[in-house]
User: Which sequence fits this backbone?
């Protein structure tokens, strides 16, 4: 089968790109011709990820950065402009989650999640938009959200509220950035088999409650968790000209979970 090269000559930045959905997305975009930069706070994991991808013949580079820190984000985008002279695709994927009961949550726990998911999306989207505008590039931005942004779940008030805010950022930035030819869309994930699905050392998709409720009873219509590569395919679609008439959309990638009750 012929290899699709939809992103030949383009440059992409994937935040939180060392593992899970970010890694799969970097791999997918690079396999379709993009030069990809992945960023994250853990240099060891990021460098290992970039090395694995380059060993596959893909053009992938890692630069350390913290999306919750405005100065760090400025450094990331200065590197993008200095090294590549352009940015065509931004994938806001960085996230954080630790289960915590609402009444026991302190400001530090709340802010940690909001700093990465909400502030990080704001900092990176603004910087990307400014670079794309300056270079006259009709860029694409894809935000990796969650179906939890519109739902309630115990021990997740901070995460769910942050993802809800991310969804509104997707819609509002889509409205404003379209004037510059920049399309912003998002994906809302269900249960995806990534390192974030391991909570307190337990892989939640393998627990009895998950298998009983979501698999055996069919709460997830496809009766399984998703794979990062399945999400990466949808992100690549939104980043491509195949989605040229999509703007401000947030596509559920959840195996049908969001339509059951």
Assistant:
């Amino acid at each position: 089968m012929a290899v699709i090269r939809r992103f030949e000559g383009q440059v992409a930045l994937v935040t939180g790109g060392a593992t899970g959905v970010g890694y799969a997305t970097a791999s997918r975009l690079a396999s379709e011709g993009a030069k990809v930069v992945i960023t994250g706070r853990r240099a060891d994991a990021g460098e290992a990820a970039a090395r694995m991808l380059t060993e596959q013949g893909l053009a992938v580079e890692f630069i350390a950065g913290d999306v919750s820190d405005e100065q760090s984000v400025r450094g990331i985008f200065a590197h993008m402009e200095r090294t590549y002279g352009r940015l065509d695709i931004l994938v806001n994927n960085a996230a954080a989650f630790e289960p915590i009961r609402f009444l026991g949550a302190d400001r530090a726990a709340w802010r940690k999640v909001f700093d990465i998911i909400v502030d990080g999306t704001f900092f990176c989207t603004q910087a990307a938009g400014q670079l794309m505008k300056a270079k006259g590039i009709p860029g694409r931005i894809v935000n990796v959200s969650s179906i939890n942004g519109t739902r309630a779940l115990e021990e997740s008030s901070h995460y769910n509220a942050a993802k809800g805010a991310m969804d509104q950022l997707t819609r509002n930035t889509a409205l404003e950035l379209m004037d510059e030819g920049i399309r912003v869309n998002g994906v809302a994930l269900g249960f995806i088999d990534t390192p974030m699905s391991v909570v307190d050392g337990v892989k939640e998709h393998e627990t009895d409650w998950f298998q009983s409720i979501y698999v055996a009873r069919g709460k997830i219509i496809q009766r399984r968790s998703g794979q990062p590569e399945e999400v990466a395919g949808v992100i690549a679609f939104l980043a491509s000209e195949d989605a040229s008439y999509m703007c401000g959309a947030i596509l559920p990638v959840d195996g049908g979970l969001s339509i059951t009750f």
Observations:
- Residues 151 and 160 are 7 Å apart (CA to CA).
- The mean pLDDT is 94.
- Residues 11-195+225-259 form a domain with the Rossmann fold fold (CATH 3.40.50.720).
